[in-house]
Specification:
The protein is an all-alpha fold. It is built from 14 helices and two strands, in the order H-H-H-H-H-H-E-E-H-H-H-H-H-H-H-H. It has helices at about 20-40, 45-65, 80-90, 100-110, 125-135, 140, 160-165, 175-180, 190-205, 210-225, 230-235, 240-245, 255-275, 285-300; strands at about 145, 155. It is about 60% helix and about 0% strand.
């Protein structure tokens, strides 16, 4: 009888061919369709905004590692690239190039590295960077242009601003909202391409479907209760970018499946409440950040059964 070789070792005993860098590369790949769409709709200047944001995020990360006397090898996990790319996709297409430099500094230094680096932060770094820019430079951060315009951009308003403030512009069709042919941030306008990237991440088991599905469905249901157009609400603004790429951050979301459902529903509720009753037409950023802050409370309230425990 053939004897199988036994290997005695300390834990962990299960290994997977995945590490942080491969996960981050998958996230970057999933964002490529929406990134290309943003450059197509808003012009080549958007590409410069994206590049400056990514490069500055990596530089801030490197500077912080040097100050903390940590190895620069951490740059190879690509998490700073993801933060820079995500922040860039939330910016208006024509922001001055120093804006992403400031935003990534806040995201990397004050939100991530000051808490010990990747895994130590309790808020989503890219969203904190955007929230800081939105409160510090509100005029720049709410200056929009029409998509597919010539070299001379035409100022306009986002669909959410048109609907909330009753501005004298025509609301776009569902189709234009779905493909992204509307004014807005560089990478948040195309629900189609964000959906493609999000499905890829779910297929690769990188994100949990519970958060984006519960987030989007809660916005739709609450929209009906408040007599808002549910299709318009989910296709406008940053719902799809937030649902698949911001709210699903491993570090800042609950550990349990039930906790993730609560997180998604809460983020959807807050997003719509801010949209309806808040000063800004959009609510994705602050809705997710508030739920980030509540994640420890959710994890303490909902604990999984211990291995071998019999449910009474």
């Amino acid at each position: 009888m053939e004897e199988k070789e036994l290997i005695v070792s300390s834990s962990p005993h299960i290994f997977a061919d995945e590490d942080v860098s491969k996960v981050m590369l998958n996230v970057i790949m999933s964002l490529i369709p929406a990134t290309i769409a943003g450059i197509y709709f808003f012009g080549i200047y958007s590409l410069f905004v994206i590049l400056v944001s990514i490069v500055s995020a990596v530089m801030w990360e490197g500077l912080a590692l040097l100050i903390r006397r940590k190895s620069l090898n951490s740059l190879l996990d690509f998490s700073a690239v993801v933060t820079g790319l995500l922040l860039a996709l939330t910016l208006p297409p024509r922001v001055p190039l120093w804006i992403p430099v400031i935003g990534t500094g806040v995201a990397i230094i004050l939100t991530k590295q000051i808490f010990g680096g990747l895994g130590g932060n309790f808020l989503n770094p890219a969203l904190v960077g955007r929230a800081f820019l939105l409160t510090s430079y509100p005029v720049i951060m709410t200056s929009w242009i029409n998509p597919l315009t010539s070299a001379t951009p035409v100022s306009t308003a986002t669909p959410l601003a048109i609907e909330k403030l009753k501005l004298p512009y025509s609301l776009p069709s569902y189709w234009d909202l779905f493909i992204g042919k509307v004014s807005g941030s560089i990478g948040e306008t195309s629900a189609l391409f964000l959906l493609i990237g999000g499905i890829w991440l779910i297929y690769k088991n990188i994100i949990d479907w519970r958060i984006p599905i519960s987030y989007i469905l809660s916005i739709m249901v609450l929209s009906l209760l408040f007599r808002k157009d549910p299709i318009f609400q989910i296709l406008s603004g940053g719902v799809f970018l937030g649902a698949f790429f911001m709210a699903t951050d491993w570090v800042t979301t609950p550990l349990t499946p039930k906790g993730r459902l609560i997180f998604g529903i809460g983020a959807g509720f807050l997003t719509l409440m801010i949209r309806i009753f808040g000063s800004y037409p959009e609510g994705v950023t602050y809705g997710i950040l508030v739920m980030n802050a509540l994640t420890p409370l959710i994890d303490r309230s909902i604990k999984p059964h211990k291995f071998g425990e019999v449910k009474k």
